[in-house]
Amino acid sequence: MELSETHTLPVSQQRAWDALNDTEILRACIPGCESIDPDGDNAYAVVMSASVGPVKARFKGRMLLTDIEAPSAYTIVFEGQGGAAGFGKGNAHVTLESEGDDATKLTYTATAQVGGKLAQIGSRLVDGAARKIAGEFFKRFGAQVGGDTNSATTPEDGDPAVADTTAQNTESNEAADTESGGDETKGKKSWKAWISKF
């Protein structure tokens, strides 16, 4: 499966590019991220904790930047292992397009696949959790690079209390849908937004 989203960042294209390649900024913006360390040319070792429905795990993974066209685009190839929780792997293409001196349009298209317990809880619940993580990442990223979260929020962002309540309700509904989904919960499932964590 595939996830495509566009966000407007309140900074210049060069500033956005620099931030996307700054491991300290990324570590601060990725929910649950414990560390991002260089691991070869254009590669990074990542450690993070994540919860997807009833599955909570600490993931250790690696991401590799390819097809780099600074300051406009790159592709991220990623994989992570969460022990008994399962694994995730995939890739994402990220592009930046200037919209003036103080605005940049960021677009990404990500594809991913999960296995193990993550694949058994149902694609709707996985996708909902991934979108929530993506929304939180862009909220934090916008604040880090421009000090203005309004330009980088998704429809689920805004008042944290409202966003949390909405996310909980969504996850409850998705859990109910998953329980009635039968075979949908079996086997490997594509996952749409791991890249949002990176």
TrEMBL record:
<protein>
    <submittedName>
        <fullName>Carbon monoxide dehydrogenase subunit G</fullName>
    </submittedName>
</protein>
<feature type="region of interest" description="Disordered">
    <location>
        <begin position="144"/>
        <end position="190"/>
    </location>
</feature>
<dbReference type="InterPro" id="IPR023393">
    <property type="entry name" value="START-like_dom_sf"/>
</dbReference>
<dbReference type="Pfam" id="PF06240">
    <property type="entry name" value="COXG"/>
</dbReference>
<dbReference type="InterPro" id="IPR010419">
    <property type="entry name" value="CO_DH_gsu"/>
</dbReference>
